[in-house]
Write a structure and sequence with these properties.
By secondary structure, the protein is of the alpha/beta class. The chain has 13 helices and 13 strands. Helix content is about 40%, strand content about 20%.
Length: about 325
Amino acid sequence: NRIYKFHSLQKFKNISYVDNLQNKLEYKYLPLESVAIYVPGSKASYPSSVLMNAIPAMIAGVKRIVMINPGLNGKQNPAVLYAAKKCKIKEIYSIGGPSSIAAVTYGTKKIKKVDKIVGPGNAFVTASKRYVFGDVGIEGMVAGPSEVTIVCDKFSNPEWIASDLIAQAEHDVNSQCILIAKNEELLKKVKIELIKQLKKIPRSSIVRKSLRINGILIYINSDKKIIDVVNKIAPEHLELNIKNYKYFVKRIKNSGSICLGKYAVMAMTDYNVGSNHILPTNGSSRFSSGISVNEFYKRISYINLSKKGIESLGPSVITLANYEGLVGHAQSVV
């Protein structure tokens, strides 16, 4: 309900405009006819990703929502299926990887092709979506292995910071965890906490490998440099676990989502706060955004010209068309 309520506020209004020549211009939002949502499932099961994909599509008015969900050990997860039922998804295929992307793009004997594919996946799924783009729509971002960048100060709790890093790293060995601090002593305390907490985590082998390959602790001695580094990283998730986060948030332009203050834990945004957890990764937050209702609309312009309108505006069109060497364009206006 929280996800539904927050995303309902993202709905767009159609535009209708009549100028002084009585030309009528309209811009309307139409829902896509069909979408496939990819929900990872070969290593772990994510009912939350069903909700994050499907609820914005439902709000937009998509008629046919298909769920692709590779099974875990040959079986689909009951929580994933229950989440799909809550979202009224009736078409579910237990397939995954590049072959599933091909199936919903081009269709098979059993699967009817869709207009767009959304949802996070591994590197092979992401590469496949890029490959078929043009034959099918995909979201305007890279939704790859998850990332977090945390900025902390001397007031931050090292135990909390360590747990936030572990929460991100347990996603996947390719997850990226970056911690930035002006206080070197705090970085040392976080390292001690990481070692201590790792002993209690079931997925500790994944966490250790993720932190070893893609984890980094960075000491930076000025706020300006921290802001510059964060904007260059352009992280999927950003936690500003600092006292003066208001100073930072005005100057940070690149991030999928930003958690403000010590209580705004990234894991909360993965589940029930109401914002979406399918966000741009690999620095793509520089030019793209997370999943929203807008992802499931297409926009169409409608133009109705009056007699006075074409007579008044036509000469300018003829001038431009002739200049560009498109005489046919000019003649069609004459």
